Amino acid sequence: MTAEAVRARQRRWNLDDNAVRNLGLVGVLVVLVVIGVVTRPELYADPTWVRNNVLTILQQASAIGVVTVGMTFVIVGGGIDLSVGAIIALAGVWSTTLATQSYGALGMIFTALVVGLAVGVVNGVLISYGRLVPFIATLAMLVSARGLAAQISGKQTQVSTNDTINNLATTRPLGIPLLVWLLAVVVAAGWVLLNRTTFGRRTVAVGGNPEAARLAGINVKRHTLMLYALMGLCCGLAAIMLTSQATSAQAAMANLYELDAIAAAIIGGTLLSGGRGTIVGALFGVLVFSTITNLFAINNLSTEVQNMVKGGIIVAAVLIQQFRYRSLTQLLKR
Amino acid sequence: MSAGTESRRAGADTVLRLTDVVKTFPGVRALDGVQLAVRAGEVHCLLGQNGAGKSTLIKVLAGVHHADGGEISWLGDPFAPATPQAAMRAGIATIYQELDLVDDLSVAENAFLGHERSRFGFTRRRAIATSTREILARLGHPEIPPHRLVKALPAAGKQIVSMARALSHDARLIVMDEPSAVLAHDEVENLFRIIRDLTANGIAVIYISHRLAEIREIGDRVTVLKDGRTTAADLPARTTPTRELVGSMTGRSIEYLFPARPAEPAAGAPVADPVLVVQGLTRHGEFVDASLAVAPGEIVGIAGLVGSGRSELLETIFGARRPDAGTVTMDGHRITGVGSAVRRGMGMAPEERKSQALLLDEPVYKNMTLASFAGFAHGGFTAARDERAAALRTADLLELRPRDVDRPARTLSGGNQQKVVVGRWLLGGTRLLLLDEPTRGVDVGARAELYQVIRGLAEDGVAVLLVSSEVPEVLGLADRVLVMREGRLVHEAPADELDEDTVLDLVMAGSLLEGEPA
């Protein structure tokens, strides 16, 4: 089929590139499920197990999903944040100190959100007003935030004794875990924010062509700062979600979350150079990764193999993306 | 090392001949029938206004661009270099206007960049240094150490390194694109000495300069380009009258269709207060003490060459650059940055549409509302439908083609992209429009439309400040013309009191004076 025919078909079905990519990711999910069915048919024979397994996948995707939404904003806005795992660790540790726990569940939630926001603001100020390259600024934050988390916790695992927090991970309103509801709300809010608000429009403009945005009167620096602040806030929320799942927090928590979040955003169709990205794609990216993790878990396979497969998927996704983009631009040149 | 070791060729031998060479870019015919014949051992000068096609022409010779039509013969054989390396191997070296040096490499490494001498993959540092020292000595600059990093050299030194690179190839033809632009006066003398040395060895030189005096001094023959065509070829460089050269540069091959100016206001009619007042604006090294005013409904044009500081002046007025001295006021309010400029009703269509104005992958309507979408929004939520409708109305006003505001901006032609940028400011209720090279890369038909649009805006009371290196455009479109030269506004007059030759004389006069021996 010629490229023109593909485009004609896309037009007929009213599909844009993003929809095509998302359909592709759904296809990947289907393939993964099929592999699961083929490898463990006895498990998939039990409908209750299947239902619970899907909820497990979603629950495992919840915290990283929230981070990926924030990451999508940062990358679309032309930046990158390598410090998200470290911010989560710092927020998690800070909110589970004995002193913080004495203020109850709301105190802990408030602390996690404020710590996340504050670290995000520091990142943003360094990048937009200090003119540090985002890669460097957040790399420095990655090291120092985890260091501070280790300092605060004395390298000990801090157990949460707050039942309200611990129950967040186990309550199931309408049969669906609260954390999954939370992810759904964040994804929906992120979609609206990116696609339907002035904030989202500015994000695309700042990432797509900062000079054009500046000359159109958009305050690029302030907006960049706000993007990192939003990222920090997402990390604070993710810290609470992870703490409730583990009923504890430690300086090593959320390890390599930055890589998972960036990878999920990228295979979801977010352009690493900024200016283009979708929240729905990012969600699918997260789901693909957590489904793979689950697939390996039910087959009792090692996480080492799992990491190699993840790496392969990232490379494949970006290659496909580049190929599609190239064929599209060639089409336009003709 | 030197190409001169070959038998000295007779001066009349034509080494390079271009016949009807054509090069098109999307929406532009950059070269549209260029004729050029260069002999061995001569200095052949290329003369033309900005945008005449000189840079494209040398890039075709250097293998950066490929000609779409016509014939190029080099040493008697057809010539179509696929890559810059191929052109260099064939013996054509180019010294670009923007020096293409790597700051963090040494002088020697830069001179031999791309054809490093190596043995088993290891660079032969000593051999390269020795050769570089020889070349530098030949260039009259034995004092430049081959191991010095290029970034530690002054501008003139970098120019020498760039020339050393050209000489490090066994070049039979060296193309120099405004080599004197960054040189002090005595350095220019040295440059001429080097050029004479080269030509005495039978090497041909294509010399591009805006400075007529230099062309008189060093040139043998002159070929003039205008709108991508050769308008005069092989004129004797020393004896051709200036009037004839300037005439060939400006002799119009494109009919510009300018809308009529409004009738003169009746005598005694109240003159509107200027909306924009600029006083003593200065940015060191860019422009000095610029003062001007623009009234509602008035089109003021600034004529000047690239590098005269006109674009910098415009961006400073818009608040995108911080002035070292002076003030910009809109209706008496100080402009301190882009934010306040836009709030006060200023809009700018910058020189580089693609890199400074457009989100190429975003739809047209989002590009049009880039400066105003917050005004359409309700409580932070964008109103795409309202934006689309408003963009469509503006598109109709500007006769945007295709009339589809959902199409990515990338897919539009240059002229229509420019309409999108201008349209952006119409949506914002702009009262002062700054236009930097509004018709660059815009084809002739679309130009006439843009002129009509700009004039129409002025009739609706919008003040327009226009910068263009195309003198006829400034003269035809503006009510009042300011001439800018080397960072200064040197002349101001109503457009109908000026003609093209006068403005060109003013624009280039400083260059002429500077190029003359003291």
UniProtKB/TrEMBL annotation, chain A:
The chain crosses the membrane at residues 20-37, 57-75, 82-99, 105-126, 133-154, 174-194, 225-242, 279-302. Pfam families: BPD_transp_2. The keyword Kinase does not apply. One of its GO terms (molecular function) is transmembrane transporter activity. Keywords: Cell membrane, Membrane, Transmembrane, Transmembrane helix. The keyword DNA damage does not apply. PANTHER family: ABC TRANSPORTER PERMEASE PROTEIN YPHD-RELATED-RELATED, RIBOSE IMPORT PERMEASE PROTEIN RBSC. One of its GO terms (cellular component) is plasma membrane. InterPro entries: ABC_transp_permease. It is found in: Cell membrane. It is a multi-pass membrane protein. Coiled coil: none annotated. It comes from the Bacteria. The lineage of its organism: Bacteria, Bacillati, Actinomycetota, Actinomycetes, Micromonosporales. This is ABC transporter.
UniProtKB/TrEMBL annotation, chain B:
Residues 16-511 form the ABC transporter domain. The keyword Transport applies. The keyword Transmembrane does not apply. GO terms for molecular function: ATP binding; ATP hydrolysis activity. Keywords: ATP-binding, Nucleotide-binding, Repeat, Transport. Coiled coil: none annotated. InterPro entries: AAA+_ATPase, ABC_carbohydrate_import_ATPase, ABC_transporter-like_ATP-bd, ABC_transporter-like_CS, P-loop_NTPase. It holds the Pfam family ABC_tran. PANTHER family: CARBOHYDRATE TRANSPORT ATP-BINDING PROTEIN MG119-RELATED, GALACTOFURANOSE TRANSPORTER ATP-BINDING PROTEIN YTFR. This is Sugar ABC transporter ATP-binding protein.
